[in-house]
Amino acid sequence: MPVIHRLSLLSLLVLAAPHAGAESLADCRRIADAGQRLACYDGLDKEIPTEMAPAATSTVANLKPPAAAPQESADSLLGKAWELDPGERGHILRIRPYKPVYALPLFHATNANRKPSSPATGHSSEDVDLSSNEAKLQISLKSKLYEDIFGSNGDLWFGYTQSSRWQVYTGASSRPFRETNHEPEAMLVWRTDYNLAGWRARYVSLGVNHQSNGRSLPLSRSWNRVIAALALERDDWTLTLRPWWRIPEKAANDDNPDISSYLGRADVQLVKSWGKQQFSVLLRHNLEGGRNGRGALQLDYAFPIAGELRGHLQWFSGYGESMIDYNHRANYYGVGVSLLEWY
Description:
Blueprint: H1 3-16, H2 25-29, H3 34-47, H4 52-62, H5 77-81, E1 95-97, E2 101-109, E3 133-146, E4 155-166, E5 177-196, E6 199-212, E7 222-234, E8 237-246, H6 260-263, E9 266-274, E10 277-285, E11 295-306, E12 309-319, E13 329-340
Antiparallel strand pairs: 1-3, 2-3, 2-13, 3-4, 4-5, 5-6, 6-7, 7-8, 8-9, 9-10, 10-11, 11-12, 12-13
């Protein structure tokens, strides 16, 4: 074959094949000769398998954000109230509701305690002018002071509850506040998650509780307790069991030595919520049998009125509706409104 023919054939082969070493479009751009550059582009196009297209599409699809994880069908009442669930953690010193916050303009006693007494020396009063109808007010808040004290569990909470009985209908005696009870407490709360007879156990706690009416003799009443608690829930129900032990006091400082026999040694509370309605039952007992068995039962029902305002009905029967009445038995009926309920 003549030399000139061999050179022509070689040129055609070069133009027909991709440029040697070309692996990308950038490599082709660096070729000076226009014919060779075009051949390089054509060669790269032929080297890309058609099967790659679906794979590329799949890769792009995989870059899309994953669908959001499904939410739980129902919120945990105790989980929100005590910041037990992962999404509720990390809020230190945030003020949260504790017990119900309400105002009962009508609070009627079937047997008003007009002569409060205690077996402690100097703690019995003379007859007092007292109306069977008064108003009852309660505020209650709590806040977490420290989180995960014991590794990844154990939260320290502080709570405060104040309830007042106001003789608002006794204009002749300047409408005094008959009784105000103060109840500060500190609680260590451990998160739990196990099944107990069909209920989900959410936490156990141990705390120190002080309760008093802040009054001078002869009407001073107070006590201190160590309270344990176990809280469970199932659907829209919560159940809290609380046994306690009274911290002993010296006889000279004890306003009410027999208070455990009347205000009890344990209580149990059952709460049912649906929408903005809520019903609760509180049962308290001294755990003594026979004629010495004493306690109390309280029922509360709240229902929506407007916005966050709810109507509130309360019935109490037994001993110790307030500290001054710890050893006095009566029935009480309350009607009013509430801003916050349990949890």
